[in-house]
Amino acid sequence: MATFSFDTVSEYNKAEMNNVLAMVEKEIVNRYDFKGTPAQIEWMDDKAGFKITGSNEWQIDSIIDIIRKKLASRDQSSKAINLDEEVIVSNLKATKKVPFVSGLDQDKAKQITKLLREQLPKVKPQIQGEAVRVVSGSKDELQQAMQIIRSADLEFPVSFTNYR
User: How much is the pTM?
Assistant: First the structure.
């Protein structure tokens, strides 16, 4: 009997994030309420997130809203950005680092495997590093597993790779 599988991972699309950055930069330049202010968005040092600069916290929140809208328009999850870091205010400028969420740690992987074991006992989820491999004898069951994972309100972005 043939077995089928796919990997569940938590990663962001680098090309789409590049597009989002370009779109947000363009909107900042064109918006009237940002004229003459230090408002800007740029890459963090290692391109693992955005660095947002504004004249105050309100302006940074506005830029984050723009980022969310652009992510949604590019079919990317806004869960891919981590907004936990605090705004740093100095020299009449406010900055905030917004790193991207990437990788499934052990707790997140356990959350996915538990969800699948409860709702689809026929599939076999296995934690493999920063991915959860889901194995089944039926492609239909794998499709159901994908639907269950997508519909679950997880606090991190989820995508599927290595569908075999």
Answer: 0.80
Concatenated DSSP letters of 28-70: HHH-GGGTTS--EEEE-TTSSEEEEEESSHHHHHHHHHHHHHH
- As a whole number of angstroms, the distance between CA 59 and CA 48 comes to 22
- Token code pair at residue 153: 């309100």
Contacts of 65 (CB under 8 A, 6+ apart): none
Taken in order of first residue, the domains within the chain and their CATH numbers are 4-11+103-161 (3.30.70.860), 14-99 (3.30.70.990)
CA distance 103 to 97: 19
Question: What are 129-149's pLDDT values in tens digits?
Answer: 888 898 888 888 888 888 888
Is there a contact between 13 and 134 (Cβ–Cβ < 8 Å)? no
